[in-house]
Amino acid sequence: MKAGDVAGLLTSRPLVDMMTAAEAMTLAGHGKRVTYSRKVFIPLTKLCRDVCHYCTFATTPAHVADAYLSPDEVLAIARAGVAAGCHEALFTLGDRPEERYSAARDALARLGHSSTLSYLAEMAELVLRETGLLPHLNPGLMNAADYAMLRPHAASMGIMLESSAESLCVRGGAHFGSPDKEPTRRLAAIAEAGHAKVPFTTGLLIGIGETRWDQIDALVAIRDLHRLHGHIQEVIIQNFRAKRGTRMATHQEPTLNDHLWAIAAARLILGPDMTIQAPPNLHDRVDLAPLIRAGVNDWGGVSPVTPDHVNPEAPWPHLEILEGATQAAGRRLTQRLAIGPRYALAAHDWAAPAIATQVLRAIDARGLPKLDDWAAGRGDAAPDLMVGKADGASAQFQSILDRAEGGERLSEGEIVTLFDAEGDDLAAIIMQADRLRRQTAGDTLSYAVNRNINYTNICLYKCGFCAFSKGSTKAMRGPAYRLDMAEVGRRAAEAWDRGATEVCLQGGIHPDYDGNTYLDVLRTVRQAAPDIHIHAFSPLEVTHGARTLGLLLEDYLAQLKSAGLSTLPGTAAEILDPEIRDIICADKVTANEWIEVMRVAHGIGLRSTATIMFGHVEQYRHWARHLLRIRALQEQTGGFTEFVPLPFVHMEAPIWRKGLARSGPSYRESVLMHAIARIVLHPVITNIQVSWVKMGPEGAAAILDAGANDMGGTLMDESITRAAGGVNGQEFGPAEMRALAASVGRPVRQRTTLYQDVPDRTATGFVAAQSED
Description:
Structural class: alpha/beta
Radius of gyration: 30 Å
């Protein structure tokens, strides 16, 4: 729709109707979240070749001691930002002052540069390297060469279109004498940012002499550029403020209703997914809630350190005030990075490699910053989980939870909504998960005494998340090994002697292995420990064995069962979605093949576990799809004994070391995965297991109050997580299991693999020396 057609629809529409429609679109696109960036402002230079009639930022050489901030001054501001918990460094500066002032040219020469943009590139790189703050650059008009020079050092950039009204550039207009404010030149610069794949911020400055038709025309121009390039990450609708000492000091400011109209128009023109921003310091606090209802979902950069150098008369509201105003509008305030969530999740498409790696390592599965310094398997103390009141959950959340409690299957979208929970909604999820756990599994916690036997770490496959496997017999990230059958048998017998009821056998896909190898492993273990439960072989190993012998899955699984196989581990599932498997394990079993192995195994009486390995490259929709596939198969077969969430341990994972994955899930996401699994899989899967290896004892304790009822196995020899950098140990014995249960005030029992009670065998166990891998 062209600008004229849009204007015809909007200019006659009552503001209240526009705001109602705009708010519905905002909620559809962003939910309750209103974001802001915690940043510092670095005014690299206040000199500018333009003379905008409303600006107090730009000045002349006579009014500044130095034309440019020095590197030391830049770093001092950035380091103060780091100390205050900032993530972004916003570089503000005038447009090419060296083309107007000899003082600027001379200062640049002393700094070793010929242009402001060249010096900006050096300072952005310095801040990024020395502090880790992500630079956002606002340097004015740029061409393709400028973007190419700056992109390696910036997470995002921006230029305000301000207006598409040519009339503002003639004598008497706000932009007269400012060549860089010509609308065609600014639109060309925005288009070049799209060609350069730069996440970009633009927007309007309303109330400087333009009409509402002009505002619509500018918004349609922005819409059309975004449709071409997909690079506009946010659009600012900023209201003009008259400032002393400017030519427009007596110009009438737009009213609140004027601002609300422009915001609502922006939302209706740009759609539900666009981020619409309004500065929170240019209105009274009581006016912030109406801005949200008009379509705002972002407050922009808020600095706890530096003032708004563009609007110095308007200090930033304290974050507590901003949070309160956001809550008053029924929304929640959430931090973001300089690069918007959608672009952060696709960082390698939208940022230079070094920037992309840093962004991925800083975010969760929503593209928002992880605000706690916790990682799975690293031995970190469990952080406080900021939850609200369970009885304060929104009506939307409560409706979803009520349906799940009744046993209904949720939709993908509803599950995604649950994973986005914070505050009161998060508290409601945790409470319901714990209540469902009590109803279906009781208060008694369970654990198994078992031993892991990983018989080889040599593997034909190259899964990006796996630090355990080795590609050959050469040492790669540690020594490669292959246990002989005698050692496998010895470890199984020793496990039985130490009180184990189960051995869990998994390994890499060795190039010399075929289906007979796995049959030999089973016979060896059964001979060494006739009464032990053999929990063995992922669907990848089963598929490999069947293919190498030319057998149907059903026939091969029957042979495995006859040779002593008792149950299957549900590993190799990772994320049951082709989009993600193509990234992390393209040559592995497909999602459909994994499901088929489990379907066939259940059909011949072999039960199995189910797992998910999360927190690497996937998003909430992929988690939802995975849970729904597990539920669907369980409804058909009833063969899963438990569901086991496995947070990604990133430290030594190849995909993380290459800068291609996130640093595992956040603590909030890890707790939610267990709780939501309980809710989504209710009532078809009774047991939800927490991994002490991944979560550590403190994290496991919290999850035992959030839906989990099982603490897993004692393991005796844990190898896979340790290879990925995990430090939570190789064994968590019965004494530790009982202590963990006591820490949450719950009774405990030892179980078999199939969740039956077992005789107390501790008198005979746990006395043999622990073997080495």
